[in-house]
Every structure is written in C-alpha cells, then in structure tokens.
Amino acid sequence: MKSKRINEFLICITLLCFQQIIYSQVSKPEKRIYLIDVTASMEGKGIVNTPDIFNEVKENLQKTVELIQDKSTEVVFIPFTSKPHTRKSFTIERLNEIKEYISKLKVEKGDTNIVDAWREGVEEIDPSKVNYLFLLTDGLHNTGPEKEQLFEYFKNWSDFSFNKYYFAFYVMLTPYAKELDIATEIDKSNQLWMIESMDVNVSFISAGFKLRTNITNSKNVKISFRSNNLKVFSSDLDVKFRLEDNPYYRIKSYKNNLKNEQSVLVELEELMPLLNTPIETDIILSIEFDKAKHPLLFFTPEKVGIEVVNKGVRTMYFKEK
C-alpha cells in the first residue's frame, strides 16, 4: 500500500488596508431658486405702513447674480402675491437678460401667500444639482392655505433635504416679516436658515456630505472646502469643529488651513482600544463659527459625516493536510 505522505504547508496572506479618504467634493452644477414677494407692500403701499424697498431689493438681486461665476448655473425666478406667478428660468450665460428681467419686475395686486410660493419653489428642486432656495418677503402669510401648512413644510424639509444638496433660506426683508412662530420652526429645521436683510449676496462654503478614513493608518482627516466667494477664506473666519456624542472617538486637535489651502485637518483619538471598536463607525462632525459676525456666510452642509474604518494589517493562516 502506497504510503500517504501528508504535505503540510502554511499559506500566509497579509491583507493591507490602506488609508482611504473620500473628499466627496461637490462637482454638481448649481441651481438657485428665488421666490420674490411682489405685493404692494414692497413699495410701501397697503394697509400696513411698510417702507418702500422694492427697487433696492431688485438692485441687490442684480448684484448677487452678477457675482455668480459658473456660467452653467441655473437661476429660476418665481414672483408671488396671492398665488405664485409665471416662473422664469435662465442660465448665467444670459446675464443681461436676467438683469433686465429683474429690473422689469413690478408689484401687483394681491395678498401674501407664502405657503403656495414655498411649495412651488420646492417643486423646482433638481436632484442632479446643488440647490439654493431663497424666499424673499417683507410681510407675513395672510392668504391661501393656513399658516400651519407652512410649518409642516419646514418640518418636512429636514427629511427631504437630508444628505442632499438642498439648502433653503427664508429672507425677511424688513422687521415686519419677522414672526416668532416661523423663526422657531426654521431654527428647528436642518439646512434651512433665516436671513434678516435686504442683501441676498450670500457666501457658501461647501464640503462633501460624507468622508471615509482608515484610523489604523492615520488619525488625521482632511476636509476640503470650496466657496462661491474666495474672500471668506482670507477673512478672520474662526471655524470650530465639534464631534457629536459617540462612544468611540473624540477630536484631539484640528488645524485650520482655510486661508491657504481651503481645508481643515482634524485629528481623531479613540476612546478605547481599537480592538474594542467596530470595524466601521459613522460619526458626525458639526461645523461652528461666529454667525453674528458673519451673518451672510453659510456652511453647506453644517454637518459632515465621517465613516471611520478600523482595519489595519491582518494576517490569515491556512493549514492544509
């Protein structure tokens, strides 16, 4: 009988998991949607003694679109009174036409139906683009659906815009437009802000919604930003970062390179041995700055997700007989 020889060999496979950081830089084209109150109060007419601001608002809007650099940016205008009026869409390539359209806007008869104007604006959202929705008004909702419907729209906005490039701004052009209930609902919503100004030349600082890093190779996460106004990076912008509560990681330090490289380097530190942490963990990084000092500056988004991967060099042994 032939003797069986048992060959025993050892196979060692070393799996190397390299650091991977996904910057998710925003490469989508931009779309801006302007919902413009054209009721008589914008010219100081009507029952309430409001100031005549209409020409100034139009001039500010013209200056704002002049500063849009990407010629492919789509700009949509929807005037409204008791109901939304005919929408008009342009690309910035047609800048002269846009400015002419704005200059020819006129106030019209009717009350202020913010609910239906908002609904119309949301319907313009394009998932293939970075969307900025602005509602400009000098007054309060006083006709059409009940005001509570507007609160529902604000509540739904957080879910609707979650992890999407949908950002909205409720622009109160005068103190007459300010209402505590509306301000409260806006404060509770994500990716929805209130602006108290006739100036709508807003500066955006954008980043990707989600990054991915392998903490076993490097504890540093680089977050790159871009802006429609590069001057904000050279200003005295003091940005702070806060990691939302989680049992695994904290921020050890961060280096602000916004002025020179438009980026921030965040150093993470584990709260327990890596052997006890999950292989993959999602954490949320909140971006904070002095909003009172920079009232027309917005980080879009204000929260960045980081998928922390805990995979280092792993060795597997196979034994064959």
Structure write-up:
This is von Willebrand factor type A domain. It comes from Myroides guanonis. The two termini are 19 Å apart. The model is unreliable at 1-24 (pLDDT under 50). This protein is elongated. The longest helix is centred in the middle third of the chain and has 15 residues, at 147-161. It has a six-stranded mixed sheet with strand order 4-3-2-5-6-7, sandwiched between helices. A four-stranded mixed sheet has the order 9-17-15-12, with no helix packed on it. A three-stranded mixed sheet has the order 11-8-16, with no helix packed on it. It has seven helices and 18 strands. It has two domains: 30-201, 3-Layer(aba) Sandwich (Rossmann fold); 205-309, Immunoglobulin-like. The protein is 20% helix and 34% strand. It has helices spanning 54-66, 95-103, 114-123, 147-161, 180-188, 231-234, 258-261, and strands at 9-15, 30-37, 74-80, 88-91, 130-137, 166-172, 192-195, 203-206, 210-214, 220-224, 226-227, 240-243, 249-257, 263-270, 280-288, 297-300, 303-309, 314-320. It is of the alpha/beta class. Helix 4 links the parallel strand 5 and strand 6.
Topology overview:
Blueprint: E1 9-15, E2 30-37, H1 54-66, E3 74-80, E4 88-91, H2 95-103, H3 114-123, E5 130-137, H4 147-161, E6 166-172, H5 180-188, E7 192-195, E8 203-206, E9 210-214, E10 220-224, E11 226-227, H6 231-234, E12 240-243, E13 249-257, H7 258-261, E14 263-270, E15 280-288, E16 297-300, E17 303-309, E18 314-320
Parallel strand pairs: 2-3, 2-5, 5-6, 6-7, 8-16, 9-17
Antiparallel strand pairs: 1-18, 3-4, 8-11, 10-14, 12-15, 13-14, 15-17
InterPro entries: Lipoprotein_7, vWFA_dom_sf
Pfam families: Lipoprotein_7
Protein name: von Willebrand factor type A domain
